[in-house]
Amino acid sequence: MNSELERIAQGISSMEIRGAGRIAVASASALRSVANASTAGTVEEFSSEVKHAARRLVETRPTAVSLPNAMRYVIRHGLNGDMSSVEDARTSVIKAADDFIENANNALHLIGEFGSRRILDGEKVLTVCNSNAAIEVMRHAAAQGKDIEVFAMETRPRFQGRLTATALAEAGITVNLIVDSAARYYVREVDHVIVGADAITANGAVVNKIGTATAALAAHEARTRVSVAAETFKFHPDTVVGELVEIEERDPNEVLPASDHIDGVRVRNPVFDITPSEYIDIIVTERGVIPPQASFYLLTNLFGWHLTERDPWEQ
Ligand code: RI2
Q1: What is the radius of gyration, based on Cα positions, of the chain?
Q2: What pLDDT does 63 receive?
Q3: 198 catalytic per annotation
Q4: Which residues in the chain come in under a pLDDT of 50?
Q5: Domain at 3-109, CATH from 1.10.287.1080, 1.10.10.10, 1.20.120.420, 1.10.230.10
Q6: pTM of the model
Q7: Which of 74, 54, 60 is nearest to 12 (CA)?
Q8: Domain boundaries in the chain?
Q9: Do residues 290 and 282 touch, judged by C-beta distance below 8 A?
Q10: Gap between the Cα atoms of 61 and 59, Å rounded
Q11: Which of 141, 166, 215, 239 is deepest in the core (most CB within 10 A)?
């Protein structure tokens, strides 16, 4: 097993590498390393090594579709066409991985640019977890000289809200760290809820860190706008053919350490929840700002010709 592949796969499973965009980029770079280090003697052997690595990565975390979408991109672009030698195939997979990573970085920049136009000077913003895409929007707004104040939900049990608060404070943004259950208390004070996404379905529902749906529901009640910042590789192609998104449930130890075990009590730890499209105003992507109801069209536009194909790592 390639050691860089194993390091990245384990890092994603343990959440040392986390965030839907980051795990996609890290997985693309893992395939790059596999391609680089391969000693395969034939193109077929090389292809099966790359697909095997993709399967290993896809199995690390089930919810964020960014990861399988990154694998689809690298395999479909990298292992396509005429590859007469292992060297051709290697060059092609490395290029596809590099292209995915470059596109992902460019996408974040464009999302920041587009999303920040929706933020007004003096706005107060509520956010959940630690989303690079959502942070990029807020950073762009601040860089344009808009004076914004952010309320960052701490995001139990892993406290990713602290990462967000740190990043925003470093960007010179006024930031308040709040407990998750204070979302409704503050939502009347804020003008805008901005969150990221791990997966967006064909019907425009957004799967994101647990607590997002509660914040969006409170925002809906208070008539506060909800924006989702997400690269197009967060749109879930399988939902067009009727699949449901699997919600990851992690180790109960993250919520209550085994040493604090309470007899007769089962601890549950779902990581994501689903916000229906009715609670979302816009989704900011690198291809533009869309209403959630346009998700189906975006998905068929992005993946339409592949929808009935099996996943490339299963072939
Ligand atoms: P970006 C994270 O998942 C959060 O749910 C966050 O909102 C989402 O990924 C998107 O993050 P986790 O890995 O891709 O913390 O915008 O479970 O960085």
Answers
A1: 20
A2: 97
A3: yes
A4: none
A5: 1.20.120.420
A6: 0.96
A7: 60
A8: 3-109, 118-304
A9: yes
A10: 6
A11: 215
- pLDDT value at residue 285: 98
Q: Using most ligand atoms within 8 A of CB, pick from 63, 131, 248, 280 the residue to mutate for ligand 1.
A: 131
71 residue type, one letter: M
Task: Specify the CATH architecture of the domain 118-304.
Answer: 3-Layer(aba) Sandwich (3.40)
Do 3-109 and 118-304 agree at the fold level? no
**Ligand 1: residue whose CA is nearest its atom 1:** 131
What is the whole-number distance in angstroms between the Cα of residue 129 and the centre of ligand 1? 7
d(CA 233, CA 72): 10
Which residue shows structure tokens 């390639």?
2
Between the CA of 156 and the centroid of ligand 1 the distance, in Å, is 14
Pocket of ligand 1, beta carbon within 6 A: 18-22, 129, 131-133, 160, 195-198, 208-209, 271
* Ligand 1 center to 134 CA (angstroms): 10
Q: What is the pLDDT of residue 306?
A: 66
Element (H, E) at 229: strand 225-229
